[in-house]
Amino acid sequence: MERVLGLAAGTLGLLILLKLIRRLRRQQNLQDKVVVITGASSGLGKECARVFHAAGARLILCGRDQKRLQEVSDELRSNSNGKTQTHTPCTVTFDLSNTSLVSSAAEEILRCHGHVDVLINNAGISYRGHILDTHISIQRNVMETNYFGPVALTQAILPSMVERRKGHIAVISSVQGKISIPYRSAYSASKHATQAYFDCLRAEVDRFGLEVSVISPGYIRTNLSVNAVTGDGARYGVMDKTTATGSDPAEVANTVLKAVCQKQKDVTLAGMLPTAAIYLRTLCPELFFRLMASRALKEQRPKQE
Question: Residues with catalytic annotation?
Answer without folding.
Answer: 187
